[in-house]
Design a protein that fits this description.
Blueprint (H helix, E strand, L loop, with lengths): L1 E3 L23 E4 L10 E3 L5 E4 H11 L3 E3 L3 E2 L6 E6 L28 E3 L9 E3 L8 H8 L15
Length: 161
Amino acid sequence: MPINCGTRPPEIKQFDGASKENWWEAPPVFNYRPRHEEPDFWALAGTTTFAMTAQLTESLGGFLHPIGELLPIRFIGRDEEFVPLNVTNAVDCLDPEFGHTHQSARFVEHRLPGSGLFKVPQLDRETLYLERDDDDERLRECIDERGLRGLVFTPVWSSRG
C-alpha cells in the first residue's frame, strides 16, 4: 500500500543510489487508503523505495544499515517514526551487450555484490536483491519467517542459469 507526499519535493523521487543524509528534510506523508489493512513495508508513492516504522528498522538493521541510509519522514496523524530506505549500495554489474531494463538485463556474475539489496547505476529506479546459497542469514527469509507484508521479491537472475 503506498503512502503519498501531499506536495512532493522533487528530491523525494530521487532514490537513485546517491546519499541524501546531509541535506534530507523529512517530508510529510499520508495514507490515502486509510481503511485498507496496513502493510509492514509501505511503498513510498512516486519512488522505487519503501518505508517502515523505526521499530521494524531496529529489528532489521543488520540487513539495512550496510546497504543504505534510513531517512526520516513525517507520517501525518501518527506518533510513530517512519523511515524510507535509500539504497546507496550501487554496483555496476550489468553486461553492456544486453539491454538495461530488469527484464532484459544480464548480470556479470563476478561483479555482483555480496548478498542483500543493491542498485545498478543503469537501472537506478530499481532496487534489486541478491541472495547467495552460502549466506547464513537472508533478508527474505527473515521477512517471511516473521510474516511481514508489503515487499515482493521478483527473481531477475540465478547462478543456476
